[in-house]
Design goal:
Elements: H1 4-10, H2 15-22, H3 36-57, E1 71-75, H4 83-88, E2 92-96, H5 100-112, E3 118-120, E4 132-138, H6 147-157, E5 158-169, H7 173-182, H8 202-211, E6 214-225, E7 229-233, E8 239-246
Parallel strand pairs: 1-2, 1-4, 2-3, 4-5
Antiparallel strand pairs: 5-8, 6-7, 6-8
């Protein structure tokens, strides 16, 4: 993690983390490249998001554009793996990332797909904009310099009746084994991507959300099944998704 001095200067952005992910920008959309694990995770994350928005806004699961008329913010968007599906679901999407390299690739890819997404290279606490119906941040909080400030930024961006959906690794011996010992050696995750000490437990993240005036509505784990790939599960020992709203 960044030093206290760096954190004070750069807010939530850890310059080393931003640089690490920026080096992966050109390869982000390659499903067999350095972001292969994110490509594999995306379907289960989208399933969770779809179920959450259908519960919140009484969808029936059959509408291809359930976010029509709503605003979505994806924080730590990388090159747009989640932002583009949100746009296809009908949302007016703003997507932000700490690495300008990621934003450049994201813009080019969205344009090639005929998608209009407002991409910005900015920290969430510096966004200066609220009223988003849906705020997402997938596998990001474990990479920021100041998790509490980051969560406050997420909360500030949220509308009064909006949904916040966050995913992050849990800090357990099993997550260290799965994501670092195995994942960064033979699992395809680039070395140096994770610092296990920066992982947050669900209780720690819940405390940060509570301090920011939010209440947790749902908690699910992400697990792996040999026949089905990544799946939603009640087991949160490795990675988990959390939905929150204003208290």
């Amino acid at each position: 993690m960044a030093s206290n001095a760096a954190a004070a200067t750069n807010g939530t952005i850890d310059a080393r983390e931003a640089a690490h992910f920026g080096t992966m920008a050109a390869d982000w959309w390659n499903p067999r490249g350095s972001s292969a694990m994110l490509h594999k995770l995306n379907p289960v994350r989208l399933r969770y998001i779809r179920e959450a928005i259908d519960r919140r806004w009484h969808g029936d699961g059959r509408d291809f554009r359930p976010l029509t008329g709503r605003r979505a913010l994806d924080v730590g968007c990388g090159a747009g793996l989640l932002a583009e599906p949100l746009a296809r679901m009908g949302a007016a999407v703003t997507a932000i990332d700490a690495a300008p390299e990621n934003i450049a690739v994201a813009r080019a890819h969205a344009q090639a797909q005929g998608l209009s997404i407002d991409y910005r290279a900015v920290a969430v606490e510096a966004l200066g904009e609220g009223g988003f119906d849906l705020v997402t941040s997938m596998e990001v909080i474990e990479h920021v310099a100041d998790p509490a400030l980051f969560v406050r930024g997420l909360a500030d961006a949220l509308s009064d009746d909006g949904l916040l959906i966050v995913s992050t690794p849990n800090r357990t011996p099993l997550s260290r084994l799965a994501m670092i010992t195995v994942g960064e050696s033979v699992g395809g995750i680039p070395r140096g991507t994770h610092d296990w000490n920066s992982f947050l437990t669900p209780d720690e993240l819940t405390g940060l959300l509570d301090d920011a005036g939010l209440v947790v509505e749902d908690l699910h784990g992400i697990g792996f099944h040999p026949g089905a790939g990544f799946v939603l599960t009640d087991t949160i020992a490795i990675n988990y998704l959390m939905t929150a709203r204003r208290a």
